[in-house]
Amino acid sequence: MxxxxxxxxxxxxxxxxxxxxxxxxKPIENDITGESWELSTVKGDVSVIANGDLSGTSLxxxxxxNPEAVLGKSVVERFGTDFPILIKFIDAKKDLSIQLHPNDExxxxxHDSFGKTEMWYIMDADEDANLIVGFNKDVSKxxxxxSLENDTLLDLLNYESVTEGDTFFINTGKIHAIxxxxxxxxxxxxxxxxxxxxxxxRKDKNGNLRELHTELxxxxxxxxxKDDFKVSYPQDKxxxxxxxxxxxxxxxxxxLSKNLSQDIxxxxxxxxxxxxxxSVEVQNNLGSTTIQxxxxxxxxxxxxxxxxxTTAVKLLEVTI
Length: 320
Prior knowledge:
By secondary structure, this protein is mainly β. About 15% of the residues lie in helices and about 40% in strands. The strands form 5 sheets. Strands 14, 15, 16, 17, 18, 19 and 20 form a 7-stranded antiparallel sheet that branches. A 6-stranded antiparallel sheet has the order 1-2-5-12-7-10, with no helix packed on it.
């Protein structure tokens, strides 16, 4: 199969803005679009192919017809015909709610779902923009619960200022929030299970406070202060630089000024390219497609070689 592009699935959010259109060129028609789901098989939000002979076919249909050709044999052995990751671009005009995600065991037990390990790559950030990642000290469950009662949770949280290129790995149980003014690329396990613990007492468009998951979160939170979230990675030009290598996905950073060909015949996984700067033509023996900043392409696992044709591009390369 040739490199596949998909129609973006656009999500209005209370905290969304216009950067998905203004910076990434997404076809949004309002000023509160917070997410563009680039690759998804989440029920009700399944990506549809936008290019070539397979245009109009859903990603799930394609996988069901020939799972090993799309996903890779080893991926099918682990995940069956479920696409194991969810790819998004996120624009936070306002602060997101403070939240966390359960691990695989809790998510399976409570929601019949995977947990949600994720990573963020900062594409654009307003001056003084930040993230909340973890606690600023070791916290007991009792101290945390008291902070919710006393409306002092923010005093316990760790704030991280951000700039373009910063990368964060958010493992399950880590309390976190994307701050106002941040545009980022997100790679995560396929899961939409989120425990919201604080939302700044905001109300939705109907005047209602959004649901919190206070009790569910108590046994899912990692209360220890940890400095394991900021990803330090090499940024060598015209090279493949490892960013994250975890059990759920592997992500490399590529900044190319010339063409690059790769033999991926031993990869046994699909390959995703998220373009975070410039443009590139992604080519295999059956065809090619061009992506620019804010676009994503899926190269199925049956592909043996990939050629990236460019004079200037920044890519996140994602595999399993």
